[in-house]
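Thread: "does anyone have the structure for this chain?"

Original post by V.I.:
We have the sequence but no experimental structure in hand. Need at least a predicted one for the grant figures.
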Amino acid sequence: MRQADISRFEVFFGDSGSGKTTFLETLPMFFEGLESHAIPKTDELAVAVDEIRAFVEQAGDKRILLYLEKRDNPLESDKEILTFFERLRDFFRDAPARVWVVWPISLRDEAERVHKLAVRIGAESLVGDAVAHYTFSGPPQGEFYSIADSTSAVFNDGKGLADYGIDEELGGGVLVHAPTLGKYFTKLIGLSNSINSVVSDVLSERARPRIWIVVAADDAVEVASTVSALSFGTSRLLDVARFTARAEGVFDSQYMKDWEPLAAYVPFLFRALDVRVIEMSPELALSIARAFGSSEVKGVLRQTSTSRADAVERLKGSLLGHLIRGLEPPPSRQPRRTKTETRQEFLRLQSLAQKKRDGQIHEAIGEAVRDLVSSVAGAEVEVETKDAGTGELRPDIRIRHPDGDPICLEFTWRTTGLLRDDDSGNASVGVSQPSSGSQNTATPGHIQQYVFKKVFEYVKALDLHRLKDFRNSEL
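Reply from O.Q.:
Generated one for you, tokens below.
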């Protein structure tokens, strides 16, 4: 079009599923000032010239590519096609030199027939010096996986093939049965359905738990920063790509060896189990502990009086409170650095978790959550109780909604190591205090290890490790 300064017609032959239409639709992404439009199928082929004329008039000064839609296997007679070319040739005589009309065809014999008819009617004025139809082979097979992966991410909120349990090795295994990109997509959809079927069979008699890791630490800024490094969006969905990238260097530990047979399914399983990482500020944790805590919980705190209503209101306004109730997350606000005395108080609370008595803190939070969801008919809150769906597992807090899968809150109580020796203050008898040598256990690396370990407990309890048997049968 640029060099000939003339409008042209082209027969565009390619096997069904080779990507002809996708190629034509996306050309404007690579050529500035080019528009691409489909000419809808009409009862009479010759009428398509009127549609072509209308598109050209609307395009103004832009170059325009127009392709005949849903005519890949032409059923028109020679006479009908000749009539179309007669009208198209007449239009080209008066049309600006910037129109390219393309007829995608999937049958080679038909492509040859249509091209010969175009030459018979117009030759130079229709197809120029082209001696045969154009043959489109599509991208090479070696690029199918990356194309499908990128396409999946574009149309599924960033979720690539790995999020559906299909890594490059598994995806490459179906190439032998997929000579075209379209057939490859069909094979991938079938593979994804098979993987989902395995999970559905395993969970057929169980509710699928939603695993929400709640990170509580002694500084609001630090805990928010850690969660931000591991998640995306205000719903705190795990950023699996960043999360697994951070796993380098920790796979030698024993719990990561457990994951090894399922390594290819990590993104899929994390998505299937709705794994999230959510922050809990020290202020919120303390408010709930003071209002709902047992005598032992309150016994480690200096301030022990907060009304239940105030604590529930604070929980209600938090991100965690919104997510539990299925509400849109609240407007994002930059957290403030936690005051020293509040950090000291939180560490007194955290000392219970260090002594394996975090169950009492969970009981307090469970009471607050019960008040939070009290207006939801049929909602139930359980604290550290067994369930047939999760075997021997006792989620810290399980929230059952009548119209959805249960939310399993798993709390991890961390310290940032920010307090200096002279900041620690005096605590209750028997409560250890941080020092300048205290380790920061609230880093993304520490939380990452906890998440892998905790999620695998669910994978094992739910018998989801059977996915490795499916993989072995496919490879």
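V.I.: this helps a lot. The chain has a mean pLDDT of 85.
O.Q.: and The CA atoms of residues 82 and 120 lie 9 Å apart.
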